[in-house]
Design a protein that fits this description.
Shape: elongated
Radius of gyration: 20 Å
Number of helices: 4
Helix content: 55-70%
Largest sheet: none
Number of strands: 0
Distance between the termini: 55 Å
Structural class: mainly alpha
Order of helices and strands: HHHH
Strand content: under 5%
Length: 94
């Protein structure tokens, strides 16, 4: 393989900055949609019990959720619940 071909191949392999930004934006949109979706309005007495835990999360992740406004912990919980439910469906648990 000539040096020219190697350079051209390397150039093609690099991700384009614009496409990476578009991908990040679409992932952010998907996460916000997951967080905003309400399965159903649960009454005060039918809500799942919650447990206080200590969870280590990347600073950038927490900052991003906080930048979307109040209720960042609730948004994180909704996204995790959605992932859990989809995982149960795939495993055939219910």
């Amino acid at each position: 393989m000539t040096a020219k071909l190697k350079k051209a191949k390397r150039r093609k392999a690099r991700p384009r900055r614009g496409k990476v930004i578009e991908l990040q934006a679409s992932v952010e949109d998907d996460l916000l949609l997951l967080a905003e979706e309400e399965g159903s309005a649960e009454s005060r007495w039918n809500r799942p019990r919650k447990r206080r835990i200590s969870l280590r999360v990347d600073t950038e992740v927490v900052d991003w959720f906080k930048s979307k406004g109040k209720g960042y912990q609730t948004r994180i919980n909704r996204i995790l619940r959605r992932v859990m439910m989809e995982g149960k469906k795939r495993a055939g648990e219910g």
